[in-house]
Amino acid sequence: MEKRKEELINLAIVSHNAFGAMAGGKGGHVGGVERQTTLMARWLASKGHQVSLLTWDEGQDQESYIDGVRVLKMCRQDAGVPGLRFFFPRWSSLNRALARAGAQIYYHNCAEYVTGQVALWCRLKKRFFVFSVPSDPDCDSALPKMHTLREKMLYRYGIRHADEVIVQTDIQQQMLKDNFELRSIKLPMPCVVPEKFHRPSIRQRSGPFKVGWVGRINRVKRLEYLLEVARELSDVEFHVAGKPDHENEYTRKLLIRANRMDNVFLHGMVPRKDLQKFYLSLSVLCCTSEYEGFPNTFLEAWSLGIPVISTVNPDNLLVENRLGYFVQNKRSFVNAIRSISRDRNAWEKMSLNGIAYFNENHLLDNAMEKFEKLFLHVANGNGVEVRS
C-alpha cells in the first residue's frame, strides 16, 4: 500500500565512516555502527522515505545514489592543516552537507564531537535531531572514551539537545538517567537475517572446534586477549576477521604475534557477501572487548545459531537467555571454550536459543518499523521538547 504524504519522512543520517559499508567491498572503515546505519538507510528508502547519508570523501561523486539512498560527501578525513582542520574543512563541510540534505530529521549514531555539531546546526535551523547511543561509556558522565575538553563539551551539548535519544539496553537507559538526567527510548537494533541457510548441528561438524573473532583491531577490542586464550588451546582453531583501525606499533606487533601461532588464522576484512559463510564455518563467536554497547556481531552470530562467548554481557542476555557464556578473565574464557566444545547438548541448546532470541527481537522489518514509528513521531512534532 502506498504511503500518504504525512506518513513519509525526509531523514539525513550523519555517518562519516559509512561509505565503505554502503558501497560494499573491502574498502573503508566498516564497523557495527556503519553496518546498522546503512541497513537503516536502505530499509527506509525502500519504504518510500527520502534518505540522505553523509560520509567522508572516499573518492566518490559529490552526490550519488546507492539503493535509493542519496549519498552526500563531505571533505576527506585527512584534508586540511592539523590543528585547523577541526574548523576547516571538517566542520564547514559538515555544515554544507547538512544544508544540502535539506532533511526534517538528522540522525547520528556515534558519540563524538560531531554529535554536538549536528545538534547545534539543527537547533539553529529548527530541524529535529535524533541521537543513538553506541556504547556504555557514552552514558558515563566522565566520558572516558573522550580525551579532550572540546570533544566532551560538544558531545554533552549534542546529547542534551537531541529531540530523542535512543539506547540499546536497560543499563544504558539507567546510566543516562543517573548521569545526565535524560530520558531515552530503548529500541532493538535491526539486523539482516539470512534468507535461507542450513544451520549445521555440532554433531554434523567435522575437524577442530573453531572459534571466531570479528571486529576492528584496536586496543579496545583486545585481540591480544584472544591470542592468550589460543595459546592454551592448541587443539582449537581461532579465526580472526577484521583489520586494524590504524597501522601502528601496537597493531603491527599484534599481527606478527598472531601470524606466528599455528592455530590462529587471519582473514583480514571479510566482505559482507562472504560474512555469512564465515560465521557458519565457526563453532562459537568470541568477543574480547573492554566495553561495548550491543555488538552487531552478536546479532549476526545468533541469527545463524552461533553461540557467543564474551567479556561483555549486554543486559545480562548471555546468561539469562542462555545465548552463550559471559567470561571475566582468561581462565574462565579457556574453560568456557573447553566446556561448550565437549558438551554437544549445551551447544545445540544455545544455538537454538540464539535464533529464537534474534527472531523475536531483531528481525529487520520488526526492528525498523519501530525506528520508522519514532521518526514519524518526531517529524510530526511529538518528540521531546528541545532542552535548553
Describe the protein in words.
- This protein folds into two domains: 5-190 and 364-379, Glycogen Phosphorylase B (Rossmann fold), CATH 3.40.50; 202-361, Rossmann fold.
- The strands form two sheets. The protein has an eight-stranded mixed beta sheet with strand order 3-4-2-1-5-6-7-8, sandwiched between helices. A six-stranded parallel beta sheet has the order 11-10-9-12-13-14, sandwiched between helices.
- By secondary structure, it is α/β, with parallel strands linked by helices.
- Helices cover 41% and strands 15% of the residues.
- The protein has 14 helices and 14 strands.
- The chain is globular and about 60 Å long.
- The longest helix is centred in the last third of the chain and has 18 residues, at 344-361.
